[in-house]
Amino acid sequence: MEFDPRWLLFVLPIVFVLGWLASKLDSRQWKLEQRESPKAYFKGLNLLLNEQQDKAIDAFIEAVQNDPDTSELHFALGSLFRRRGETERAVRVHEHLIRRGDITKADRDRAQHELAQDFFKAGLFDRAEAAYAELRGTAFEREARLALLSLYERSRDWAKAADIAAELEAAGTGSFSGRIAHYLCEQALVAQAQGHADLAPALLEQAQRRAPEAARAYVLQGQVLLKAGQPELALAAFTRLLAVNPPAFNLVAADCAAAATQLGRPERAIALLIEQYQRAPSMHLLRALATLQPEPQRERLAAHLREHPALSAATDLLKLNASALPADEAAPMVKALETATKPLLRYRCAACGFEAAHYFWQCPGCLNWDTYPPRHVEEL
Ligand SMILES: [Zn+2]
User: Fold this and answer.
1) Which candidate, 51, 93, 221, 360, has a CA 20 to 30 Å from the CA of 376?
2) 349 assigned ligand-binding residue
3) Is the pLDDT of residue 206 over 90?
4) What domain count does the chain have?
């Protein structure tokens, strides 16, 4: 077929118009894509996936600068900074969000909550306290109060911690009686350390009223009275402890024996120690008993060993029988057993496993309260 050049007069304008339309459509689509997902986001994401966090942060900062209205990206960046310990940058991001006039109240409260966490993480407790206080009456009030409680505990501000715990209790966040009793005990210890021992008894009685079954206030009360030369009253406090919280009596077995000895009435402590031993045998009780009644400790230890093969009972029994062995054999054997027993005579946090020779009411590892059973690791 022969080509007719007249066709071009028709086809060329149509092709031109179609081409122009297609180019318009393409550039619109391209602009839309550019607006919705700028290159910087992809660059940041790519770097993040390649574990190049520093470069990823720079790319995200660039994206935020190009698109300052994106609050979600600000939140993501702020939280990334805080997790990496760059709290100063996290604070800047969250303060910028709070200052912005175009975000919702919910987002502003959220930014305030994030900012408070930044200050807390940075150890700026005064500023964290003020930032959390701003969250009263918002959806973050409960979280803010719990964070304030933890903040006051860390800064050992027991009076403020007690106020916040009472507020949480009133708001229906469960019972805080046990914690409040601990705060009162802590206040009693502070009063004593600062030379105001006269304030301690009232605080401890208040603690006992707040949490009648919590052991600590009775333990402290007995120990304070014993130190003050009032063994009769100390013994009364230990007797009350045995009634309200028998397992914790282990912690005062030695003090109880000392109080009865001071009083010249060893039989009173012997009765308490035997009563608890029959209920829950332990080496705490047996060793206290031995200070008051040396006989028949050998038989008691042998009987204990048959039921509870504890290394510390074997050590004590070996010490009692040492005279029957050649001196150059007995001493090294006792030493070897004592070395092996030492790690077993610790207390262990049931929540985190932190072990210590000292008994803690608040675990120094996980900061939980009342997580140490009042028994040595050997007897758990
Ligand atoms: Zn712990």
Assistant:
1) 221
2) yes
3) yes
4) 1
